[in-house]
Amino acid sequence: MASSGGNLPNFPSLMLPYCRSNEADDDSSVVGVKESKGEYCRCFHDVVTNEFHHVDFPEAFGKTCRGSGFGWLAFTQETPSGFLINPTTRQRIDLPQITTLPGVVSYRPDRAGFEYVRQDVSMCDGKVYRVGESGSWMAHFYVNKIVMSTDPAHKDCVVMGLFESCLGGLALCRPGLDAEWTAVVGSTNGYTDAVFWRDQFYAVDCLGNVDVISYNPGGTC
């Protein structure tokens, strides 16, 4: 969702946290919430016009937003399934499951609180070991950011995931086409941020070094 402020350039709207609308006071003391028959809604704030647009958005409830671009939002959740969604058209495109990311060993929904097993590295001796994690932890902390190269509805779109892993921390996929994430061999220092600019992905590692990640649009990752 983009704002339009006369001759000003378009700016993306800010998505505010969800809240059950019938919990809000009549004067809407909770920012971003209005009455909508008890449905969960999200508020999008137009920073140019200072307008608030309330949208019933059940697809986002209980999910963690990990990126945005070209009018789309990227979500993770406690189960392995992540997805991209356009909040205006409601078109949805699934991402490969996070169990295909490097470092994720297994997923068992019957292990309450420890549904996932992942690999980590000891800071003391550098040895790799396994640790159990909850679905909530994985949704909030394992996948740190999702970056899109172009509109995900376009067949040439490539998505890069920035994730917590001792095995590199970057992976690529073609949304809606690839069944698995493809690991990117990069810095062993871990990554803190990533962007897409002028046909290239750029990732910053924990020491401030910038890596340029090449990909093959329209082909395999």
UniProtKB/TrEMBL annotation:
Xref: InterPro entries: F-box_BR-signaling, KIB1-4_b-propeller
Highest taxon in the source lineage: Eukaryota
Organism name: Linum trigynum
The organism's taxonomic lineage, starting at the top: Eukaryota, Viridiplantae, Streptophyta, Embryophyta, Tracheophyta
Domain called KIB1-4 beta-propeller: residue spans: 49-216
Any Pfam family matching the protein: Beta-prop_KIB1-4
Protein name per Swiss-Prot or TrEMBL: KIB1-4 beta-propeller domain-containing protein
